[in-house]
Amino acid sequence: MRKKQSVIGKMILIAILILMTSVNGVAFANEDESTNGNLDISAIDEFMTNEIERLNIPGASLAVVKGDQVEYLQGYGISNADGEKMTAQTPIVIGSVSKSFTALAIMQLVEQGEINLEEPVQSYIPWFQLADKEASKKITIQHLLNHTSGLSTYDGQVSISQGDQTLKEHIQSLENTELTYPIGEQYQYSNINYIILGLVIEEATNKSYKNYINEFIFKPLEMNNSYSDPKDDKNDTISGGYQTVFGFKMPTKQLKHEGTVPSGYLISSAEDMANYMIAQLNQGEFKGKNILSANAMNTMHHPSSFIGNDTSYAMGWEVNNEEISHNGWTENTYSKVVLDGEYGISLQINSMDYFNLNEYDAITSGINKLVHNEKPSISDSHPFMKYVMIDLILLAIVLLIVWSAYRMVKPKNRKVTTFRRILNGLSIFVFNWLLPLIILIGFPKLFGPLSTVTLFAPGIGHLLFIIPLLLFIVGVVKLGKGTRTLKKNTFGV
User: Fold this and answer.
1) How far is it, in rounded angstroms, from Cα 308 to Cα 324?
2) pTM for this structure?
3) Checking DSSP bridges between strand 311-313 and strand 318-320, what pairing results, if any?
4) Domain total for the chain?
5) Which residues in 133-152 are b (16+ Cβ under 10 Å) and which e?
6) pLDDT, averaged across the chain
7) Which residue of 124, 269, 283, 457 could cross-link 294, Cys pair, CB 3.0 to 4.6 Å?
8) How far apart, in Å, do the first and last CA atoms of the chain sit?
9) Which of 347, 371, 395 is the last residue of a domain?
10) More confidently predicted of 164 and 32
11) Closest CA to 319 of 331, 332, 302
């Protein structure tokens, strides 16, 4: 009897060990196994650890799926300023990856006959109006999905800082918004397109966007740590975010983004994103359930509007050859999903680094190579040094402004010649008026609206606004002082 009990005990112990090392095909980086199927877990872990340290990333989570199986889930670093561990279950705001969820919801409603891709937006939102009333009648659901509505990237960036409105209020505020291209003619990535689609979902279903996503996407895909509203996270598990201020990571809170959730502020975990990727890779099927038909899924992934560099936009996804992907970032988080037909990779990071976004993108590229048993490119760059250079340049400019202001108040005994006055006047015109105007007018056109730049790149973004103002003020004071001196020398007053 004892021998039989001993055998049973050993069998139970073996079963427990197997369960601990493999749950539904999931491998954890802190286990002894160095591979999981074709994956070299130790190589993935080493690569992730090195990149997180090199880029000074507080926390990240990674999911890898193959076919209909989860191959790898892991959290790295910390999820918040309290030092809580980042896990595969920790929810993070996923940025513009949210657009793929909004597109999926639209395609579900297309299949149900509730929405027609060729129908104008006004068929669902009768009061929808832009500055051009006739053009407003012609924008269709398809145009919005493919970013060919004519709405600009710039206006879409402005919308990020206006998320404290409801969806309806946000769309109502577009009545003076101008189109920058004829409808259907040009691809322009604009958050506004997907904000409008969020309201279309509400109007077509008589449900809030939040309730629709919860009921028809999150629930059937068993995305139990995913939210449309951070208030629904009753256990306070959502990861905190970090912003890079002059090169240093600082924990910050996000603004209110109720009106921009469909374009960039859904929340999900690596574990939940694994389920989402399985549905995307398997033509809408997850654990025997279909959230979308194969035909509709193929339509959603089909390239429609050309972006450049062999890349086109589909519906909530970018397509490059056989690879489907989308990245996203908010003021203090980053995410990217890559689907290559065989594998799906989801990377989420709880920090934002505006000047090193290409380095964040490169992490996913490296993981993609590793899962295909290829060697990733290892960067030897030092991202912090980029900030050191930028900070030193900005510091030098600020010191020059301070020195210039000091020289204005410092008494001068030497006589100022006419040539010197002309030179001073030219200097004021170029450095105190023309240069500030070029920065204030030209900078937003190159890098986006100041409201967004200061939100996404605090510190440096603010200085790029403050420095031109200081230069202009110093110029006005210099001109005033020069005019008084000239009057005194000429008229003796």
Assistant:
1) 15
2) 0.85
3) antiparallel
4) 2
5) eeebebbbbbbbbbbbbbbb
6) 86
7) 283
8) 118
9) 371
10) 164
11) 302
Boundary (domain end) residue, out of 346, 371, 396: 371
Task: State how far the Cα of 16 lies from the Cα of 22, in Å rounded to an integer.
Answer: 10
Same domain, 332 and 433: no
Can you tell me the distance from the alpha carbon of 174 to that of 150, in angstroms, rounded to the nearest whole number?
A: 13
What's the pLDDT score for residue 164?
80
What is the domain range of residue 477?
383-491
In the block, residue with structure tokens 């201020």: 245
**Dihedrals phi, psi of 104, to nearest 5 degrees:** -60, -45
**Per-residue confidence at 411, pLDDT binned at 50, 70, 90?**
low
The tens digit of pLDDT for each residue in 167-217 reads: 999 999 999 999 999 999 999 999 999 999 999 999 999 999 999 999 999
Task: Flag whether 182 is in a domain.
Answer: yes
Say whether 58 sits in a helix, a strand or coil: coil
How far lies 385's CA from each of 51, 147, 248, 365, 395, in Å? 16, 36, 11, 23, 15
CB 167 within 8 A of CB 334: no
Task: Tell me what pLDDT residue 416 has.
Answer: 61
Helix (H) or strand (E) holding 209: helix 209-213
* Parallel, antiparallel or unpaired: strands 289-290 and 285-286: antiparallel
Question: Distance (Å, rounded) from C-alpha 154 to C-alpha 444?
Answer: 9
Residue 33 placed within a domain: no
Does residue 368 have a pLDDT over 70?
Answer: yes
Shared-domain flag, residues 164 and 270:
yes
Question: How many CB atoms are closer than 10 A to CB 295?
Answer: 12
Same-domain check for residues 78 and 139 = yes
